């Protein structure tokens, strides 16, 4: 069984509509796919319908924007209630923070001679409730300033670059608490990728497990080297937590993250589903969705 637990549609910063993403997953030989758009569950209904039509497993999820000591950290959250009041309010603030900074990003880019308008950015953000830096990158590709998203981030949008503007994000411990209160399963995304490695050391991961109930970490990911994966598997084994693997697929928006390039071991997936049952039982006020597993 081939299981990919981290993908994005155009409901956040992926480029494929949800139904197209599910069709591509089936074509890629996946048996189960999780939709984990940034800070939104907007694609879940369409994803469930497409999964049933295609006969492919579907796990609803969200990738939540977090920040620890000023460093970006992402939390993958599965089978949670997105309408749980405290969580829904935090996600709303995060989405609005992303969108509200677009004029500032455009102004900063203009100030260093980069041609761009807010309308150009909004034209790239079709179907999403949250406009972010990837849509700015897509606008820069469309107007010929850069060749792809990677170049846009490297030159203009990454932390410390001319077009970077910070936005509100949730402290990871609080995010994990909210996900569990909403009946879901919290997994840290690519803990040693991008900038997360600066704060996601073994002691921090252990604290999140012990103090907040972190269920696992995403290990097999394109941002992790072979030695990093080996070390992270040792940490997961030592802490007794779930180890996942995923593509972090964004359609045409991210190079070298093809669907199924990394997958989750079926035994680890079964562990995730067991934790989901336990957390749902412990959160009787949450309206927890079910995975579709044909």
Q: What does this 3D model show about the protein?
A:
This protein folds into two domains: 3-83 and 169-281, Metal-dependent hydrolases (TIM Barrel, Alpha-Beta Barrel); 102-157, DNA polymerase, domain 1, CATH 1.10.150.650. Helix content is 42%, strand content 15%. Helix 1 packs parallel to helix 2 (44-54) and helix 5 (118-124) crosses helix 6 (133-142). The protein has eleven helices and seven strands. With 294 residues, the protein is an alpha/beta fold.
Structure summary:
The protein has 294 residues and is an alpha/beta fold. It has helices at residues 18-27, 44-54, 85-100, 102-111, 118-124, 133-142, 149-157, 172-181, 202-212, 226-239, 266-281, and strands spanning 3-7, 32-38, 57-68, 71-78, 185-188, 216-220, 242-245.
Question: What's the arrangement of secondary structure elements?
Answer:
Elements: E1 3-7, H1 18-27, E2 32-38, H2 44-54, E3 57-68, E4 71-78, H3 85-100, H4 102-111, H5 118-124, H6 133-142, H7 149-157, H8 172-181, E5 185-188, H9 202-212, E6 216-220, H10 226-239, E7 242-245, H11 266-281
Parallel strand pairs: 1-2, 2-3, 5-6, 6-7
Antiparallel strand pairs: 3-4, 4-5
Tell me, briefly, the overall form.
Answer: globular
Task: Give the strand order of the largest sheet, numbering strands 1, 2, ... along the chain.
Answer: 1-2-3-4-5-6-7
**Known CATH architecture of the largest domain:** Alpha-Beta Barrel
Provide the low-confidence segments as ranges.
none
Percent of residues in helices comes to: 40-55%
CATH superfamily of the largest domain: Metal-dependent hydrolases
